[in-house]
Amino acid sequence: MVAGASGDDGRWAATPAPTTREGPYGCAVSRRMQKGQPLAGKSLFVLDMDGTIYLGDRLFPWTLPFLRRVREIGGQYLFLTNNSSKTSTTYVDKLRRLGVEAGPGDVLTSGDATIELLRSEGKYRRLFLLATPEVEAEFGAAGFERVEESPDAAVLTFDMTLTYGKLRKLCAFLRDGVPFIATHPDINCPTPEGPIPDIGAFMALVESSTGRKPDRVVGKPSPDFLRAAMIRKGATAGQTVMIGDRLYTDVACGIAAGVTSVLVLSGESTQEMAAVSPHKPDLIVEDVGELGRLL
Ligand SMILES: [Mg+2]
C-alpha cells in the first residue's frame, strides 16, 4: 500500500511513489499498511483466477487460507473469467478438483456477466447469438430467445463453433444497425498448445467487413464485469474489492468500476511493471495470502 500518494479520488496519484529499499511499490510498503485500510468494510472479494489463486493446475498454498479468512469475516468471494466459451460449471468443477469450496453462484464468466446485465437492464430479449451450445443453453435458461431474424441485439461470445454462415449473418445484422455486444475483448486465448484466436480476433474480422465495433464489451477491463459481479452478489462498489495479477485488465477493471483494486505479484506483474503502469491499484501484495493477513 502506498502511503501518502492518494489523489483526490482516494487512488494513487501520478505523484512519485515513496521509494523504499525494496523498490517504489514494494511489499515492504504494503506491510506498513494499517490493518483494515483500505479493506475496512469490504465484504465482496472478486478474484481473477490464473495467476491469482492458481497457476495452471496448481492451486497456490495460500489460496485456501485466504478464502477461509474471507468467510471468517463474513465476506463472500466470486471468481471471474473472461472466457465465454465455457459455462461457469466448468470452472466450478476445476475449482472443486483443486479443493476450493465453490458453487455455481461463485464463478462469473463474461458470458454470465452479459446475461446478468442484459437481464437486469431488460432492453433486449431476442438475440442473434454466436455461442457454443452450452453457453447458448445458459442464455436460453435465463429467458432470452435465440432468433435468426430481426434480433433486438447481436451477442458475440467466444464461439468455438463459429461458422461462415454465422459470421455472414452477424455482419448483415450489423450493417442493418442492430446493437452489437461482445462478451470480452481478448484477441487470443492461451492453451497448452499455444494461443488460439479469441473473440477480439473475430471482432477484427467483423470490423474489417462492416466497419462496426461492438457497442459494448462486457468482460475485463470493462467495469460492466464488476457491475454484473456486484448484482450477482448483492454488494455495493464500496463493499467490493477486485483482486488480480494483471494491471491492464484486473486492476483497470477495478478502477473503472470504482471499487478497491488489489494487485497480486503471484502471476504476470512485477513491482517494476506496477511502477510504470497507468493503472494504479489501491494495494499491492505478494499474493492473496498476504492480503488475507490484512483482513
Ligand atoms: Mg490472471
Radius of gyration: 20 Å
Q: Helicity range of the residues? A: 25-40%
Q: Give me the strand/helix succession.
A: HEEEHEHEHEHEEHEEEHEHEHEHEH
Low-confidence blocks of residues: 1-35
Say what the CATH topology of the largest domain is: Rossmann fold
Structural class: alpha/beta
Average pLDDT rating? 89
Question: What's the CATH superfamily of the largest domain, by name?
Answer: HAD superfamily/HAD-like
The tally of structural domains comes to 2
What compounds sit in this structure?
magnesium ion
Structural description of this entry:
It is built from eleven helices and 15 strands. The chain is of the alpha/beta class and 295 residues long. The protein has two domains: 27-82 and 225-293, Rossmann fold; 112-217, HAD superfamily/HAD-like (Rossmann fold). Strand 4 (76-81), helix 3 and strand 5 form a beta-alpha-beta unit. Helix 4 packs across helix 8 (223-233) and helix 8 (223-233) crosses helix 9 (247-257). The longest helix is centred in the middle third of the chain and has 12 residues, at 110-121. It is globular, with a radius of gyration of 20 Å. The structure holds magnesium ion.
